[in-house]
Amino acid sequence: MIATSTVSDIRRRPELVGVGSGGWVACDPDAAADDPHRVVAYLECKDEIVYVLWVAGSTGVREFDSLPDALDAIAARLADRVS
Questions:
Q1: Which pTM was predicted?
Q2: pLDDT, tens only, 1-10
Q3: Listed residue (38, 42, 25, 51) closest to 81, CA to CA
Q4: What DSSP state is assigned to residue 56?
Q5: Strand runs (DSSP E) across the chain, as ranges?
Q6: What is the maximum span of the chain, computed from C-alpha positions, in angstroms?
């Protein structure tokens, strides 16, 4: 059987812009460069923990064990924007 994906299976991966010293800004790849809602979160890696400061949607900081885990959470938030 051939596996097919649906729109709900596809998640937009954030665009990461490095800001130095283990920090990145996660942006919505579908938003225009001048869109004030383009920035979704600020990420920082310290002591083997990835801290995500949410800029869009709810605010606050979450901790993740890895960068892929943080990116999955950001991708889920981006998916919620279009649903």
A1: 0.78
A2: 454 444 444 5
A3: 38
A4: S
A5: 15-20, 23-27, 39-46, 49-54, 60-64
A6: 47
